[in-house]
Amino acid sequence: MDLGSGLIGGLAIVLIALPFLLIRRNQNKNKAKMYDILNALAQQHETIIEKFDLAGNFIIGTDPKHEFVFFFKKGKDEEVIHQVDLKEIENCKVVKKDLLKGNYKTVERLELVFVPKDKSQLETYFEIFNIEQNMQLNGELQVVDRWKVEINSWLRK
């Protein structure tokens, strides 16, 4: 009786834990794949990713020595890849578009925007969050604010 209860209890624990372990393993594989894509992009520009952040479905990384910022986002239907040469950038800012729903506000879109020194050039947008692709924020506000501050500090050097 005790052996049977132990086996059933052990099997129940394994069955409960297994989905969480598989999800975690899959997330780690996806993160590694996203880093590999970002790193390959950096190698195309003969740079090395020294610092990066992974959040949700995007990764952003930089090579401060060569003054490049790289971005990769995996959407439902498409993949977005951007790179920015900071030598051509004047300023970096965050654009947050809010959506009013009843009595409260929700973030509809969050972007990291690179303003070029040459005003005839277009701004470069890294779309960090879009409510149509993700239902809720998962650390994106903190990541985008941290990168804005860090990039602007590099630009002022």
Please render the helix and strand layout as text.
Layout: H1 2-44, E1 51-55, E2 58-63, E3 68-74, E4 79-85, E5 89-101, E6 104-116, E7 124-130, H2 140-155
Antiparallel strand pairs: 1-2, 2-3, 3-4, 5-6, 6-7
Low-confidence stretches: none
Mean pLDDT: 87
Considering DSSP H and I runs of 4 or more, what fraction of the residues is helical?
25-40%
Termini separation (Å)?
73 Å
- Count of extended strands: 7
Series of H and E elements = HEEEEEEEH
- Choose one word for the global shape: extended
Structural class: alpha+beta
List the total number of helices: 2
Structure commentary:
- The chain has 157 residues and is an alpha+beta fold.
- The protein is 38% helix and 37% strand.
- It has 2 helices and 7 strands, in the order H-E-E-E-E-E-E-E-H.
Keywords:
single chain; 157 residues; alpha+beta; 4-stranded antiparallel sheet; 2 helices
Task: Provide a concise account of the structure shown.
It is built from two helices and seven strands.
